[in-house]
Every structure is written in structure tokens, then in C-alpha cells.
Amino acid sequence: MIGVSTKILGRKIIYFQEIDSTNEYAKRIAMEEEEGTLIIADVQRKGHGRRSREWASPRGGIWMSVILKPDVHPRHLIKIVFVGAVAVVEALEALGVEARIKWPNDILVNGKKICGILAEGKYSESKVDYIILGVGLNINVDKDALPPEATSLKEILGVELPLMDVFKVLIGKLEHWYGIFKRQEHDILFNRWRSHAILNRKVRILSEEGEFEGIAWDVDEDGALIVETPDGKMEKVIYGDVSLRYA
């Protein structure tokens, strides 16, 4: 990984040709490793997203997890996924690809998912031991190796990109926005997220409390999605799945 100029993220890089899951490995070593340690693999056999959903991770993508140990109150940890989402969108922007964010952290290009982001960690009510930020970005993955709802940079641009070049852009963006998070400049983070987010749209929410539809207007200061239901009531969604409605 020669040429990485970040100061925190990627100071130590652990590379695998193949692994079960970079996030799972990161969780196993996180307590002993320094902040910024990064695990990256060519292939994940058991890549997963939220709620243990499978994430296809064949050769040709960036599958990585970074160990973070921010000195913040645990209530702020939900914002880590916003850090990842903004960083990925800005990295894609630098590569000439316009992407949008579906709350809180699905990265879409032309309506198809190009990147998965997952934050997991160990923390108590008052202390953060670690948080793992996992990023899976489809770069040179063939269309046939992806589910129909996903896409890759190769499919969008029509050419393969050097993985190292994409990695350098991505890790630089991650470090920048992680720094903003650690300085607790949350307004800057959320405003940038809003500028790329899919809002003012009809959505369907599926959560532990049930299922409902409404208009997704904004996020609050904690990152909860604010949805207006058909009867005019404003609901805050902290955890749940969002699907876009087209009618």
C-alpha cells in the first residue's frame, strides 16, 4: 500500500487474498490493535451487511474494514455510517461518478447499489471500546457476479480502474470525514450528507415496530430519519429498512 498519505487510517494494513469477512476479523483483533488499523481482502467468502444480509464480495472490489477508537460518547456512534456514506460518495465524485445516498448509508448509482457500509462495535452506555467501519465497493466486478439490484464502476464507466488508485482516494476521504466526526462538527457532516441524500421522496419503512409509508424529509441531529406519514404525523426512524416508492 505504498503511497497512502493518511495519518491515522491505514497506518497499519493487514492484507488477505481471501477471508471470511474483514469486519469479523477486525472485531477479533480490535481490542489489541491501534486506531486506524485497516483490514483489506481481495475476496470475502462471507461478506455481510446489516442484519447479516449477504454481500457479494468477489475479486475486483474493495472489501475493507477499519478499526476506529473515537473518544466520543456512544450516542454519537450512529453518525459513523454517515461518515462512511459521505466519504464513499465524494470518492466516487472524484472518479467522475455521481452517486446518491439512501438513508442512512446505501450508496446508489442510477438506482442500483454500488457500495455497502456497515458499522459494528463494542461499547457501553458511557464508553467506546472500538467501532469497525466496513466498506464494500464494487469496482471491477463483472455484472454477472452481482445481484440484479447492484452495479459496479466497471459497468458504469465501461472500463476497469486500478484498485490502488480508487483505494487511495477512498481512504483519503474517509480520514477527512472521520476527522470532522472526531471534532464533533456534526452539522458539517449532516449538511454534506443531505446534499447527496435522496430526500423529499415517498418511502416505505420496515422496522421492528412495523411497516408504514410516508415522505422522507430530513434527518435530525442524531441521524434519525424524519418521515411524514399520510395523516401528517412526523415519525423518527432510528433503525429500519427504507425502500423508495415510485407511485
What does this entry look like structurally?
The longest helix has 20 residues, at 163-182. The chain has 2 domains: 13-196, Bira Bifunctional Protein, Domain 2 (BirA Bifunctional Protein, domain 2, 2-Layer Sandwich), CATH 3.30.930; 201-244, SH3 type barrels (Roll), CATH 2.30.30. 40% of the residues are buried. The protein has 5 helices and 12 strands. It has helices at residues 22-29, 80-94, 153-157, 163-182, 186-196, and strands at 13-19, 38-44, 61-68, 100-102, 106-109, 112-123, 128-138, 201-207, 210-219, 225-228, 234-237, 241-244. Helix 2 packs across helix 4. Helices cover 24% and strands 33% of the residues. The N and C termini lie far apart (47 Å). A 7-stranded mixed β-sheet has the order 1-2-3-7-6-5-4, with helices on both faces. A 5-stranded antiparallel β-sheet has the order 11-10-9-8-12, with no helix packed on it. By secondary structure, the protein is of the alpha+beta class. Strand 10 (225-228) and strand 11 form a beta hairpin. The model has no long low-confidence stretch (mean pLDDT 91).
